[in-house]
Amino acid sequence: MMLVDGDAGSTSDWDDRWNHIKKFLERSGPFMHPDFEPSTESLQFMLETCKILVIGAGGLGCELLKNLALSGFRNIHVVDMDNIDVSNLNRQFLFRAKDVGRPKADVAADFINSRVPGCFCPSFYLYLEFHIIVCGLDSIVARRWMNGMLLSLLVYEDGVLDPSSIIPLIDGGTEGFKGNARVILPGMTACIDCTLELYPPQINFPMCTIASMPRLPEHCIEYVRILQWPKEMPFGDDMALDGDDPEHIQWVYQKSLERAAEFSITGVTYRLTQGVVKRIIPAVASTNAAIAAACATEVFKIASSAYLPLNNYMVFNDVDGLYTYTFEAERKENCSACSQVPSDLHFSPSSKLQEVLDYLTESTSLQMKSPAITTTMDGKNKTLYLQSVASIEQRTRPNLTKTLKELGLADGQELAVADVTTPQTVLFKLCFTS
Ligand SMILES: [Zn+2]
């Protein structure tokens, strides 16, 4: 965690430094926000007051930091847990070969500070301090966690949202030649979890599914990768599967097709095979640049109030030509993250706890990773299942094969579920079906 901080009003400003920004803020124009009065105040706010948190200092993050610093934001904090890898250097342009191994956030902040005069970094912060948060992440879990964090900061009085508690979240995402940028006003517009179905499905599957009951093309590819390759060693002993070797991928692809045919599963392609085997999201520098530019523009629009923000989801695709459109993602009435309504879980009393667990991880609208389920019984907290602590996992594992009735759960019982996808506990209401 590092800060790119404007030493506001310092000697580092030269005449006309912000002329390009002033054109947007100090004169009116046809695209201006209807309530905006051009003045010098917006620029002062951006330069001196506005505090931005950039999450991720990778491909998108480097672009975002550069764009924001050059747009006049001088109080930019950046957080990233990764260290720099040599493979980042082609597009993560704030890093040099000498930086390999160092934390991304530190190096990115140093670079911006040295190249954009007036920009500087403390290491502790509260999310509450920020006016705007920008995410340039490749992890859906991290994105959902941040979404949940901002939702947890919302203040409701008599059920009415206090607008001053809203911290806008600008979220950018890219995958190869595709990308999206969105503006989220937590509690007001669709949140990350409202549109979870839009994200690609997970790529880590339970072994039993892969081995005995595949349903998706990915399951078939995983079967070949994990079980068949080590058994058959098609390229000689000790030859590890290499995702960059076309012959290896071709072999896995053919075997996956055979496996898929056995279970009448369609959708196995060479490209999908490579994607599953390599477990990577290909990075394209131009896509990152376009999406980061869109995100930085949204930050500028919100910080200055000079223009209406994107409403609220922009899709970008330059696989074949260039295609882009925007739409308004809608809030989901029963969103488990932002609706404030406990979701119902419909199960029969004879369902096993394992089925509830599977639902939490496999449902497209929940996509939890390692849910821990607790409930209250006779006024006491009871952990039904918890995976993250080995001793508790061992103790609660037998519950998975018990039915809900055997566990003493009643119709209408509240289940509290904790997961890495959110900082808050999600409440569910158990509804028995007959
Ligand atoms: Zn939501």
From TrEMBL:
<keyword id="KW-0547">Nucleotide-binding</keyword>
<dbReference type="Pfam" id="PF00899">
    <property type="entry name" value="ThiF"/>
</dbReference>
<protein>
    <recommendedName>
        <fullName>NEDD8-activating enzyme E1 catalytic subunit</fullName>
        <ecNumber>6.2.1.64</ecNumber>
    </recommendedName>
</protein>
<dbReference type="GO" id="GO:0045116">
    <property type="term" value="P:protein neddylation"/>
</dbReference>
<dbReference type="GO" id="GO:0005737">
    <property type="term" value="C:cytoplasm"/>
</dbReference>
<dbReference type="InterPro" id="IPR023318">
    <property type="entry name" value="Ub_act_enz_dom_a_sf"/>
</dbReference>
<feature type="domain" description="E2 binding">
    <location>
        <begin position="345"/>
        <end position="433"/>
    </location>
</feature>
<dbReference type="GO" id="GO:0005634">
    <property type="term" value="C:nucleus"/>
</dbReference>
<dbReference type="InterPro" id="IPR000594">
    <property type="entry name" value="ThiF_NAD_FAD-bd"/>
</dbReference>
<comment type="pathway">
    <text>Protein modification; protein neddylation.</text>
</comment>
<dbReference type="InterPro" id="IPR014929">
    <property type="entry name" value="E2-binding"/>
</dbReference>
<dbReference type="GO" id="GO:0032991">
    <property type="term" value="C:protein-containing complex"/>
</dbReference>
<dbReference type="InterPro" id="IPR030468">
    <property type="entry name" value="Uba3_N"/>
</dbReference>
<feature type="active site" description="Glycyl thioester intermediate">
    <location>
        <position position="208"/>
    </location>
</feature>
<keyword id="KW-0067">ATP-binding</keyword>
<dbReference type="GO" id="GO:0005524">
    <property type="term" value="F:ATP binding"/>
</dbReference>
<dbReference type="Pfam" id="PF08825">
    <property type="entry name" value="E2_bind"/>
</dbReference>
<keyword id="KW-0436">Ligase</keyword>
<dbReference type="GO" id="GO:0019781">
    <property type="term" value="F:NEDD8 activating enzyme activity"/>
</dbReference>
<comment type="similarity">
    <text>Belongs to the ubiquitin-activating E1 family. UBA3 subfamily.</text>
</comment>
<dbReference type="InterPro" id="IPR033127">
    <property type="entry name" value="UBQ-activ_enz_E1_Cys_AS"/>
</dbReference>
<dbReference type="InterPro" id="IPR035985">
    <property type="entry name" value="Ubiquitin-activating_enz"/>
</dbReference>
<dbReference type="InterPro" id="IPR045886">
    <property type="entry name" value="ThiF/MoeB/HesA"/>
</dbReference>
<keyword id="KW-0833">Ubl conjugation pathway</keyword>
